[in-house]
Design a protein that fits this description.
This protein is 27% helix and 35% strand. It is of the alpha+beta class. The strands form five sheets. Strands 1, 2, 3, 4, 6 and 9 form a six-stranded antiparallel β-sheet that branches. Strands 5-8-7 form a three-stranded antiparallel β-sheet, with no helix packed on it. Strand 14 and strand 15 form a beta hairpin. The chain is elongated and about 115 Å long.
């Protein structure tokens, strides 16, 4: 009996040792993958030349949602760049990014069905560099204009699948609250007027942002103190009334 118990103990010890080794091996593989950049952003570059102009582009080849990605364009031309430089970029390429903007900012940006045209005022010299501060949004994208795009397997750009509409009311204060930021139309609020975000004075959509609290902390603290004092006064009044009735009953 003792021999069997000893064998079971040694077997359990070996199993625990191999489990620990396996865990450490997986942990080491994960750390090495992070150090070598397999879990982060991998960038690549492309360049082209024509008629004395050269363009170099550094961009992300692979990345994950939420990570900052590189995007930098360098334009060179011996003898100067002229008054302005216009970059033409496939418009859908930027749909998957949440951005803080370009550095420097373009003086003009126009877009047709497929292409985004960015116009920059160029500095003196033969070289001009444009950087794009951005990170990849989650797989489902919502643009400021309400367009909803998704990244599908095997595609290099996002595909638009729908749009969001915003509603405006003649009297927003007349809406009936249902909780969890839900409101219902009432006769007092009037009928809704729907339109695309950013149109006819409507706001735009900001994906991934958290709304700042609209509660005034100082005002709420004052209201709480006033409510507490009112409760204490009413409690004292009830207590005094009970004492007076008790005295009357003893007479």
């Amino acid at each position: 009996m003792q021999t069997i118990e000893g064998l079971e103990t040694r077997a359990q010890g070996r199993a625990a040792t191999w489990t620990k080794r396996g865990f450490l091996t997986l942990l080491l593989a994960f750390v090495l993958a992070g150090v070598t950049g397999l879990l982060g952003v991998r960038s690549t570059s492309a360049s082209d030349e024509a008629d004395g102009w050269s363009l170099d582009l550094d961009h992300a080849a692979a990345a994950r949602a939420g990570l900052d990605v590189p995007w930098e364009v360098t334009v060179r031309h011996e003898g100067g760049l002229g008054k302005e430089v216009v970059l033409a970029v496939t418009g859908a390429y930027f749909d998957i990014y949440e951005t803080q903007g370009f550095t420097p900012e373009p003086t003009e940006a126009t877009r047709d069905a497929d292409t985004l045209y960015l116009t920059f005022a160029t500095p003196p010299g033969d070289t001009f560099v444009v950087a794009y501060d951005a990170y990849i949004q989650p797989s489902a994208q919502v643009g400021r204009d309400g367009t909803i795009s998704v990244m599908q397997s095997g595609q290099a750009s996002a595909t638009q699948v729908g749009t969001l509409q915003l509603a405006n009311f003649l009297n927003p204060a007349g809406l009936q609250g249902r909780g969890e930021n839900l409101y219902v139309e009432t006769a007092a609020s009037g009928a809704p007027t729907t339109n695309a975000p950013g149109a006819n004075g409507l706001g735009t959509i900001q994906q991934g942002y958290i709304e700042t609290s609209n509660v005034n902390v100082v005002e709420e603290l004052v209201n709480m103190i006033q409510t507490q004092r009112a409760y204490e006064i009413n409690s004292k009044a009830v207590q005094t009334s009970d004492q007076m009735l008790q005295r009357l009953s003893q007479l």
